[in-house]
Specification:
heterodimer, A: alpha+beta, Aldehyde Oxidoreductase, domain 3, Aldehyde Oxidoreductase, domain 4, seven-stranded mixed sheet, six-stranded mixed sheet, 20 helices, B: alpha+beta, Ubiquitin-like (UB roll), five-stranded mixed sheet, 5 helices, globular
Chain lengths: 764, 156
């Protein structure tokens, strides 16, 4: 027993929720049912832009089994989906701004009955010509939304150094335009909520989401009631990826309004078709990118115009755009930077949060530019990145000086070695000489990413936790961030156990709910480990203080110095006092406070919105991807052979879960790069199923090799930063650069479908 | 109409509407491990084993299972012990959000029952009808390989 050293952090402990999921017994929102429960449905706009002349629901109301139909007039509170600018109504009043915009809400005994009622609603509209792309939005004289006269939902500039001057004397200037399409989250579980009034008239929602506090705000807003009369509880959530950040407020508002009206529980779940057509997705983008280099290959100037297609309402576009702008030049120190970022309004479903949050689009442009520069300067693509990447003391485009935990160069070096870069490059050349129709190539791309909400997170930059110690020495905790499949419950259990020095098995995560902890923002921005982990550490520290003070009061110890909690025991000056369980029981008998609600505020940021200068994020994580691809010149189809994603995100709490995030994110990146393609007609999404919007299957992914670089971040819980989003973000340029290496065709549009590759080859 | 079929090892009789999908029927009788992912036969979250073959239950009407034998995730393992494949999925980190997991595990079971020592290609083909958006499939593939090893070529 003497050598026992209980560790929870840094080990691949088993996920605490995996067995129930493998048995199929884990409860998702669609698996719960309450007595008297009704179903919900929505009558939606069939057109992209127009005015409602007449709406007739009389026939629909008469369908047997229809309990109620609501229009905006029936909303007791505000007709609003609160996000950032509060410009989106829940239900159309007069002006329709996108296909699928909700007009009426219906509650009925079954989904079939609701479908029938929807078909009987009569809508007369005066149609207008819709604005359907970024370019149309820039040219249009007519505003999509009168609140944004020039169709600009949000604008951010960054200006640093002397851009015009440097471009005049630069050795090499590279100027290109880039475009990217939507990306659909394709979480396997569609959106859903159940709403019912539970005891004391509290409207209670059970659902699938990333932020119960957003849903609480939305429901209180439409009901016109107190926040304290709304509770939101998390069910097992079947994937989210940003797609369940803000839009669950819409789902919750609908379910709650219908429940309030009918006085019955309401289940509102979306079909896959309705989910794809009406929920948020990654913003399409259009970028004009100019880069200037000196003769040694140093990036000396950047001038970027970055446009996102925000859709009909601003939703999260202001924040998505900000993140994109901050990361627009990549992980490189460059003194002369001009960035103009715009989120444009169009008559389409609002775009929103998606893993990477406005960054994958601009990284695609930035890292393609870097590759082009390497070739023109006769430098190796890896060399040019090594030369330009951040080192200690480097300055970001917002003027932030980087001081600690800067792993970008390490990710390049370790990735290059694992990938066997030089050898592999030679082998592909040999392969290409032998094969007429199959061509192979290798590609590389680097990126950095701010962990947490950063300066634009404002009041949301906080973490909260509730930790409760029982008299048997076991511990429960809850936090404000959610488990959506990423493994947060497990990682935070490890952090709790390690902080107490007790076995992982003694710690239990409980359901996330607005009833337990205070509003601490959404589960986004790769922040859950950092923000909730630190909040837990604060609570555990206080509990240990309570226990220590108790031991002093009881004369078990003669001073409160040199007390250690480890190996399920308590020590003073290295000598064991008693087991943790014994202490817990004694403390309970002694009426010690055994529950602590805690609060964690990350270090301040200094970013100024006017000139885009200052510290934007507390810290950054870093990635360099290496890929080998094969293109079949008969079909123009690209297949990934090997992908090495070399990532630094502080210290690792759970290696197996970290690998799982890397592999999963990489595959979403492969889908984004190669074949996930949304097609619209007159603003209506045609690719509304998995047979038309194809995501990667097990046959499409090639061999994945996560490479993990550890670099401690002192402020992080046990040295951790954050890592959920980075694995997806740089895959498109890595593959694009590899395709160029294979066939000499440069691609400027994501996704690189066979048609896109053919178009580029044909035009050459 | 009445249908008779074998459900997870027991002969059962149920009253159903002829136009009821097997997915809806199974969830109605309480087998919530059968997940609704797309209802167009594309994702495999609702997959069940029908006479030894993996099939999407959203593409079947109840009349089509009359006289047949089906296995759902609830039919694997028992109350105390999960099935070896379930255990292996947990150990290998093949479970994230869990929504595809029942279908994946049943696809693995159907594959290994028929092909106890599968090649990697056979594994990929066997699981190609099941979408997963979280894991990137690496740990799922590993879980299948390990399950096959542990089962040692035996059908369980």
């Amino acid at each position: 027993m003497k050598k026992e050293n209980i560790k929870s952090v840094g080990r691949s402990v088993k996920r605490i929720d995996a067995e129930e999921k493998a048995r199929g017994t884990s409860l998702y929102v669609d698996d719960i049912k309450f007595p008297g429960m009704l179903y919900a449905g929505v009558f939606r706009s069939p057109i992209a832009s127009g005015t409602i002349i007449k709406l007739d629901i009389t026939k629909a109301k008469k369908v047997k089994g229809i309990v109620t139909i609501l229009t905006y007039k029936d909303i007791p509170g505000k007709n609003l989906v609160p996000v950032v600018f509060n410009d989106q109504p829940l239900l159309v009043e007069k002006e329709i701004r996108y296909v699928g915009e909700p007009i009426c809400l219906i509650a009925g005994e079954s989904k079939e009955i609701i479908k029938k009622a929807i078909s009987l609603i009569e809508l007369t509209v005066k149609e207008r010509k819709p604005v359907l792309s970024i370019k149309e939005s820039l040219k249009s004289k007519k505003a999509v939304n009168p609140e944004y006269k020039d169709n600009i939902l949000q604008y951010y500039p960054i200006e640093r150094g002397k851009v015009d001057k440097i471009f005049k004397k630069a050795h090499l200037i590279i100027e290109n335009e880039y475009e990217t399409n939507y990306q659909e989250h394709a979480y396997l579980e569609t959106q859903g909520m159940v709403a019912l009034e539970e005891m004391n008239g509290i409207m209670t929602l059970y659902g699938s989401m990333q932020c119960p506090f957003y849903v609480q705000e939305g429901v209180a807003t439409v009901l016109g009631t107190d926040y304290s009369k709304v509770s939101v509880k998390l069910m097992t959530t079947g994937g989210a990826f940003g797609g369940k950040e803000d839009v669950p407020s819409i789902i919750g508002e609908i379910a709650a309004l219908l429940s309030k009206k009918t006085k019955r529980p309401i289940k509102f779940t979306l079909s896959r078709e309705e989910d794809i057509e009406t929920m948020s997705k990654r913003h399409p983008s259009y970028t004009k990118y100019r880069s200037a280099f000196d003769k040694d290959g140093k990036l000396v100037g950047v001038d970027i115009d970055y446009y996102l297609d925000g859709g009909a309402y601003s939703t999260l576009s202001p924040i998505v755009l900000w993140r994109g702008v901050i990361h627009a030049i990549g992980p490189y120190d460059c003194g002369n930077v001009r960035i103009n970022g715009y989120a444009m309004a169009t008559n389409k479903v609002p775009s929103g949060a998606y893993r990477g949050f406005g960054t994958p689009q601009i990284i695609f442009a930035a890292e393609t530019q870097m590759d082009i520069a390497a070739e023109k300067l006769g430098l190796d693509p890896v060399k040019i990145r090594e030369k330009n990447c951040f080192k200690k003391g480097s300055i970001t485009s917002t003027g932030q000086v980087l001081k600690e935990s800067i792993g970008i160069l390490d990710t390049i070096k370790k990735g290059k070695k694992s990938f066997n870069y030089s050898e592999r490059k030679k082998n592909t050349e040999k392969f290409n000489k032998k094969h007429k129709n199959l061509k192979r190539g290798v590609g590389v791309a680097s990126l950095f990413y701010g962990v947490g909400l950063g300066a634009r997170g404002g009041p949301l930059q906080k973490g909260s936790a509730l930790v409760s110690l029982f008299k048997d020495g076991s511990v429960q905790f809850s936090v404000g961030t959610t488990e959506m499949g990423q493994g947060m419950y497990t990682v935070l259990s490890q952090i709790t156990a390690e902080s107490f020095g007790i076995s992982f098995e003694k710690v239990h995560a409980t359901r996330i709910s607005t009833e337990k902890v205070s509003d601490s923002g959404p589960t986004v921005a790769s922040r859950a480990t950092f923000i909730s982990g630190n909040a837990i550490k604060v609570a555990v520290k206080r509990l240990k203080k309570n226990l220590t003070e108790f031991m002093f009061k009881e004369k078990i110890i003669n001073s409160m110095k040199n007390i250690e909690f480890k190996n399920n025991n308590v020590y003073k000056n290295g000598k064991k006092l008693m087991s943790f369980t014994e202490l817990a029981m004694k403390a309970w008998l002694g009426r010690v406070k055994m529950i602590e609600a805690s609060w964690y505020l990350p270090p301040e940021t200094t970013y100024d919105i006017k000139d885009g200068q200052g510290d934007a994020y507390v810290t950054y994580s870093y990635v360099t991807n290496f890929v080998e691809v094969e293109i079949d010149l008969r079909t123009y189809r690209t297949q990934v052979i090997d992908l090495f994603s070399s990532e630094e995100f502080g210290n690792v709490i759970n290696p197996q879960l970290a690998e799982g995030q890397i592999e999963g994110g990489n595959v979403q990146g492969i889908g984004y790069a190669l074949f996930e393609n949304t097609v619209l007609s007159k603003g209506k999404i045609l690719t509304n199923s998995f047979s038309t919007y194809t995501i990667p299957t097990i046959l499409d992914v090639g061999e994945l090799h996560p490479v993990i670089v550890e670099k401690k971040f002192k402020e992080g819980p046990f040295g951790a930063k954050g890592m959920g989003e980075m694995p997806l973000m740089g895959i498109a340029p890595t593959i694009g650069n590899a395709i160029y290496n294979a066939i000499g065709t440069r691609l400027y549009k994501v996704p690189f479908t066979p048609v896109e590759v053919y178009e580029e080859i044909k035009d050459r | 109409m009445k249908i008779n079929f074998n459900l997870n090892g027991n002969d059962r009789t149920f009253e159903t509407e002829p136009n009821e999908k097997v997915l809806d029927f199974l969830r109605r009788i309480g087998l919530k491990g059968v997940k609704r992912g797309c209802e167009t036969g594309d994702c495999g979250a609702c997959a069940i084993i029908l006479d030894g073959k993996i099939i999407n239950s959203c593409m079947l009407y109840t009349g089509q299972i009359d006289g047949h034998s089906i296995t759902t995730i609830e039919g694997l393992g028992d109350n105390q012990n999960p099935h070896l494949i379930q255990e292996t999925f947990v150990d290998e980190g093949a479970v994230q959000c869990g929504f595809c997991t029942p279908g994946m595990i049943l696809a693995t079971k159907a594959l290994l029952d028929k092909t106890p020592n599968p090649t990697l290609e056979e594994i990929k083909n066997g699981l190609s009808g099941n979408l997963c958006r979280c894991t990137g499939y690496v740990k799922i593939e590993k879980a299948v390989v390990e399950s096959a090893k542990k089962l040692g070529g035996k059908n369980v």
